Amino acid sequence: MPDTPVPAPRGTSDSVAPVLEAVGVSKHFEVRNRGGNNAVVRAVENAGIALHRGRIVALVGESGSGKTTVARILGRFYAPTEGEIRLHGRPVAAGGIARRDYFRKVQLIFQDPFGSLNSLHRVRYTLGRALKLHGHARSRREVEDGVIDLLRRVNLTPPEQYLDKFPHELSGGQRQRVVIARALAVRPEVLLGDEPISMLDVSIRLDVLNLLAKLRDEEGLALLYITHDIASARYLCDEIDVMYAGQLVEGGPKEAVIQSPKHPYTRLLLDSSPDPGRSLAAGSASEGLFTATGELGEPPDPADPPTGCRFHPRCPFAMDECRESFPERTEFPDGQWVHCWLHQKGRAHLLAPAPPAQSLKETRP
Amino acid sequence: MTDPALLQVDGLSVDYLTPQGSARACSDISFTLRRGEILGVAGESGSGKSTLITALTRLQRPPAVTSAGRIVYHPADGEPVDLVAQSERALRRRRWRQLAIVMQSAMDCLNPVMRLGAQFTDVLRTHDPSLDRAAAWQRAGELVRMVGIAPDRLPAYPHELSGGMRQRSLIALALACDPDLVVMDEPTTAVDVVMQRQILAQVLRLRERFGFAVVFVTHDLSLLLELADRIAIMYAGRIVEIGSSADLYHRPKHPYTKGLRDSFPPLHAPLRELSGIPGSPPDLRDPLPGCAFGPRCPRAHAACEQAVPPLRTVEAQDVACVLYDPQNPEATAHA
Ligand SMILES: Nc1ncnc2c1ncn2[C@@H]1O[C@H](COP(=O)(O)OP(=O)(O)OP(=O)(O)O)[C@@H](O)[C@H]1O
Ligand SMILES: Nc1ncnc2c1ncn2[C@@H]1O[C@H](COP(=O)(O)OP(=O)(O)OP(=O)(O)O)[C@@H](O)[C@H]1O
Ligand SMILES: [Mg+2]
Ligand SMILES: [Mg+2]
């Protein structure tokens, strides 16, 4: 395998305006609870995310934390309950930018490459139609050339071999690349990938990640990459944002977030993620912050979330403030930021320096 | 210091007999599982991991048939028995008490209309009829407490529990009758990494206490490397490499094992570009004459197409690859 280093992440681009931005967005769903009463699921609370040209932001967090809801708000599938979406600095809400024009700039890619292609259509038709619909090709010739170009860009080569295939004749990875090609047919500036590799076999996931990296590097796409897998977020992205129970709790340049997490939840996530390089490195075990004894913490109920910082019931450092209100944002010089009372109360030393994470095999009593 | 053998699998083959033809989903599988050992089984989707697990526990259903091989089980007290030759009745007596299973979907294994506690007392009292209701309920409480669930949740129905709780209940249920062997098929795929780690830390702790062995199936090799004592890598129905977690991580021998290891980007180690394994697995109904991985293998050469390579001991692990065949001129170039 090639030993070339992965390109270093570009510096923070605060100076450059974001292509797409969510500012203070919340999404509350009205639902009926088990007793038959109305309840409100606070799926996303006051979240901000900025996507820049040629950069990839990862959004990580556990199941139900609100990642898909953020992607759907950014993709204009849902209107936010509060806050706004801005494309090139312009609010997109009612009257701002027509939906059709918006979808030309912003494309969503879903998790399931099996459900998202019409099984009755050949690759040629699926891609050709997307090109024609958005006026990027008219004559047969233009369509054919356009489709071949798209297949090349997603590394389905030689393209002629894929033109007449039906979805069921393609592997999962090939199918997901056709889905990406269809999104590219629109010539978007932004791709929103909601767990685009989680349904794929492990052996072909990197292939799709490398393709997304190529689209960022060569075509300057702005990308949002939603995942459970923080190791893949580090591999692909420039920036990592961490979500917990609808609240964005930490974010910043990926190495900062991974090597020196500032939020206890990020620590927990990192300590819990498999990393054979860490645990198989001889004798590097020590007790982690979170020892799984007695009652195990449960993720919160989104219809009845904890007050204040929603992580406080599971947090080993929880203080009175944490139960009362959500902390302000603390910013660090390298662009990292966090919402955690430890930093507001001068108790950050409890978190850092991070001791080596606990290895699974060393959790024996 | 090696523990005695618990399960000896010898030449096990399983076929699916379908109208479209027969597919050999497990082919000539041999390994020994020791008492108290955690053996991981990793491989791509369709490589035969679940087929192997259901064959081991004799839970397979048509169209699957065990077409060859033996699974010799060594009970702590008594003579070794070949599970393949056992009657369904004899097997039923061993289930839960000696061999327990945890499936990927807890919802499929728990009875949705039965309270959690009743499912425990059922299993407990079937295998120990002398246990009265109150004692069984008491024991159920101890079991769920072991996996971090408060005993006052016993009256709950499965749908009233979180996914992580259901999965943990299933693990506690599997341990209810103090089995020798617990097989787990992707037991944590549906839960979050935080919950996954808590569950697995519990499993390790309980193993330490009760000494059961585990066969743990997952596609997540990075997880197995941390969890298992030894790992078997499957490709197209065969074990292509088996060895300790440390050896497989630091010194993988089979090109497929290397590819699989390098499909998981590191969390902390320096990043470099990784490429996974291009291509897709073969059709099991139409097997190649040689190594099934050949068409995707970066080191394939003429010798690979001759015959299916047998597992050979190479240093600390066993590997099925002609690169390690001393008769193969290409092998010397490699070693
Ligand atoms: N249309 C909806 N109506 C009601 N509740 C919803 C709706 N969509 C999402 N939710 C709830 O909002 C919360 C956030 O869901 P979301 O799908 O955004 O999470 P997620 O982070 O994408 O989770 P996963 O990792 O499982 O995909 C969950 O509690 C979910 O049940
Ligand atoms: N009931 C069945 N009838 C016919 N073929 C089957 C059946 N079940 C499984 N197979 C085939 O047997 C092979 C092995 O399947 P198996 O479920 O054991 O794989 P696996 O390694 O567990 O995969 P996964 O990671 O997707 O769970 C596959 O090629 C599959 O298509
Ligand atoms: Mg989601
Ligand atoms: Mg399976």
From TrEMBL, chain A:
InterPro entries: AAA+_ATPase, ABC_transporter-like_ATP-bd, ABC_transporter-like_CS, Oligopep_ABC_C, P-loop_NTPase. SUPFAM superfamilies: P-loop containing nucleoside triphosphate hydrolases. The keyword Transport applies. One of its GO terms (molecular function) is ATP hydrolysis activity. PROSITE patterns: ABC_TRANSPORTER_1, ABC_TRANSPORTER_2. It comes from the Bacteria. Residues 20-270 form the ABC transporter domain. CDD domains: ABC_NikE_OppD_transporters (cd03257). SMART domains: AAA (SM00382). GO terms for biological process: peptide transport. Keywords: ATP-binding, Nucleotide-binding, Transport. PANTHER family: ABC-TYPE DIPEPTIDE/OLIGOPEPTIDE TRANSPORT SYSTEM, ATPASE COMPONENT (PTHR43230), ABC-TYPE DIPEPTIDE_OLIGOPEPTIDE TRANSPORT SYSTEM, ATPASE COMPONENT (PTHR43230:SF3). This is Dipeptide/oligopeptide/nickel ABC transporter ATP-binding protein. It comes from Mangrovactinospora gilvigrisea. The lineage of its organism: Bacteria, Bacillati, Actinomycetota, Actinomycetes, Kitasatosporales.
From TrEMBL, chain B:
The keyword Ubl conjugation does not apply. InterPro entries: AAA+_ATPase (IPR003593), ABC_Ni/Peptide_Import (IPR050388), ABC_transporter-like_ATP-bd (IPR003439), Oligopep_ABC_C (IPR013563), P-loop_NTPase (IPR027417). Keywords: ATP-binding, Cell membrane, Membrane, Nucleotide-binding, Transport. One of its GO terms (cellular component) is plasma membrane. Residues 7-261 form the ABC transporter domain. Gene3D superfamilies: P-loop containing nucleotide triphosphate hydrolases. GO terms for biological process: peptide transport. CDD domains: ABC_NikE_OppD_transporters (cd03257). Pfam families: ABC_tran, oligo_HPY. Belongs to the ABC transporter superfamily. PANTHER family: DIPEPTIDE TRANSPORT ATP-BINDING PROTEIN DPPD (PTHR43297:SF2), OLIGOPEPTIDE TRANSPORT ATP-BINDING PROTEIN APPD (PTHR43297). This is Dipeptide/oligopeptide/nickel ABC transporter ATP-binding protein. It comes from Mangrovactinospora gilvigrisea.
